[in-house]
Protein: Alkaline phosphatase D family protein
Organism: Micromonospora parva
Amino acid sequence: MTELDRRTLLRTGLMVGAGAAGGALLGGAGANAAPAWRPAARPVLTHGVQSGDVTADSALVWTRADRPGRMLVEVSRRPDFRGARQLRGPVLTPNGDFTGKVRLRGLPDAERLHYRVRVESLDRHGVVSEPRTGTLTTAPGRHRRRDVKFVWTGDVVGQGWGIAPDFGGMSIFRAMRQARPDFFLCSGDTVYADGPLVESVTLPDGRIWRNLVTPEKSKVAETLAEYRGQFAYNLLDEHLREFAAAVPQINQWDDHEVLNNWYPGEILDDPRYTERRVDVLAARARQAFNEWLPVPVDGPMYRRLSYGPSLDVFVLDMRTHKDPNDGNTYADPKRGLLGRQQREWLIRELKRSTATWKVIANDLPIGVVVPDGPGAQEGVAQGDPGAPAGRELEFAEVLRATHRAGVTGMVFLTADVHYSAAHHYDPSRAAVGDFTPFWEFVSGPAHAGAFGPNALDGTFGPRAAFVHAPPVANTSPAEGFQHFGEVTIDGESEALTVHLRDRDGASLWSTTLPAP
């Protein structure tokens, strides 16, 4: 960690500390041009810059170079970087795919800041890459009330629908950037490692969808290099690169970062794979996820992020501890998809939270039935409207414990099912009555095949207030039905407004929830 003296801290209001993680694949021209290999005397930042897991006084900043080098980061209140302070970050090496991260510390809260990243050659001191710049907004401090806005979605480049320049690329990221959110919550399926692309697909109306294709996206990912290539591919899209440079991220993983509907201990029966041990594939995928996204690499993937007195975000990991996909009707309280430690953490932290709104990012929905073939279930629900069973037992425990503790303001945000919906849960309609009514909002896909709607399980009494789903399964992004959600919390009234938006940012449905 690099320390600045007290006089510098007081003068600039900024202090920076370093931490490294790591990432290989495609080289390129940086954040504002499509990456492509360009040998040169100077290092090249191949995939732009990103920031993530921003707090009131810290943020992660990410980049990738085309060769080994020292990561250098400047941060400033000013876009011209006058008076900025520079941090010498980690050395980017092949072991980390030439990716690196720096944790900026001592940042002023609730401010829009500018950062600039370069990489210095290890062979020629003083020879640095062209800079790439980004912006981020820090969270409000514990006692600082202000408006908070964020967007969420999931499911990126799925079902064979890749980057198609003739159809505008992944334009949903342009619409989300234009909303000027404080941060972006990606609710899983950040990539589709099990979704190979072909060069062209004929649409129902005869038009041709032409994918950009790379070697790593031409087969299912098995090796570490192939998993890294999934993330490198997505950053070929100019809209995503510009969005990533402008908006801090909170990322969680779901199944397609590894493969469809996976769970620990699974052994594959899929001829596309030469490595059949899912635990081996998941370890490689997890390393690529940690290298290529601005996420913390220490500790569990589940975590809590605070945005002033109005908002706490609880990011769940519903994959690492998941039990096998069966009929999901068991009575064993030791099974589930959160695991005992995460379940106890969630209950404890929800009780401790003093935020007006507790947003729970659950990458699998609670009441939507998500089958995994005949007789098996992928999600929480299984379609039986009776008393909780299977994985529903975990959420019955969370809802019961928080209800009895008087916890209010819980809202669930999810993706996964590839359509947009608003579900209200109420004990008056449920098979159990020991919980406080709540909303679960569904968005996505960001750029994938559209599906749905799925059946609702009546155990917790869901009612669909809104659904926007395609007429046929695997509707292409060319037909629309791509979605993101937007949440705004008013700094004065603390009312929470949700807009469910389409690919271009038009509001399809909205509701405002008064502060509890």
